[in-house]
């Protein structure tokens, strides 16, 4: 939330650059910290998490400024596609890199990539297209004409009480919570699931765990482009957001219920891939929705909702084992997750809006 507020106030370019400096430094220091003590390692990884937590809220400050409403979901799809592909590439490349330059060298390599990206960022990116020296006048006019939100500068940020009094905001919060719950259940427990249910060894499970994220990168772009196409075709923003969010929750929910019928790990992998691919439609749903209702404060509000959603991610990741033990099986826990998906779909469709709420 702090990162989003800083980005809203000082511009996304500076805040993202500062975050990149810190997360790259934390990456570089991780092997050294591990050699010192567990407390030092924990401190460095906390720094890494705090710095990377700035990324999504800061992205939400860029999108309303750089993209018209009818292009915003596509931009989110492309950005998140990079996030997912980065997971896949690092997941597959790290063992190879480590075999050549060792553990410490691998962390140094990824840290150097962060600083290389930072140089490109500082030389080519501006917080607002008005300040860009490379954008054409015609493109700038297109962006400015397609902006939503208040043209008044200096208005006061809404109080926390006012923010939490809006059911439209709660629709986004609940969607973020359930999306993070399901996402991190699959991210953290998929290899364990394959090992426990199908006795697939960890090397094979690693491949099963990597493939869905690549599919998610592609499906996220398709979802964003489809959402923008519907808006340009005359669909209202709220209708598009609800359609995409419904697909993003009902699809994974049904997929998780279908896992009980999977007889082989290959079938289970296909079903989980479908679950994650369909869940990426949420990027064109609640993820974009905060930019619809509060473009001027998108970074701050995205940071707040994402912070709450992160708590759900921690609970689902840490508590999944306890839930499985309590409910008696992995399938029972996945059924619970499916029920949460369906319930959140109803809540979001009841209260979400595409109108400007915070001006």
From TrEMBL:
Keyword Ligase annotated: no
Mode of membrane association: Multi-pass membrane protein
InterPro entries: MFS, MFS_dom, MFS_Na/Anion_cotransporter, MFS_trans_sf
Regions that span the bilayer: 15-34, 40-63, 75-97, 103-123, 169-190, 210-231, 243-262, 268-289, 301-324, 330-351
Alphabetically ordered keywords of this record: Membrane, Transmembrane, Transmembrane helix
Compartments reported by the entry: Membrane
Annotated ranges, domain Major facilitator superfamily (MFS) profile: 1-355
Family affiliation: Belongs to the major facilitator superfamily. Sodium/anion cotransporter (TC 2.A.1.14) family.
Function of the molecule: Probable anion transporter.
PANTHER family referenced in this protein's UniProt entry, alphabetically: FI19708P1-RELATED (PTHR11662:SF399), SOLUTE CARRIER FAMILY 17 (PTHR11662)
Protein name (record): Major facilitator superfamily (MFS) profile domain-containing protein
Species name: Brachypodium distachyon
Organism ancestry: Eukaryota, Viridiplantae, Streptophyta, Embryophyta, Tracheophyta
Designated gene of the protein: LOC100825295
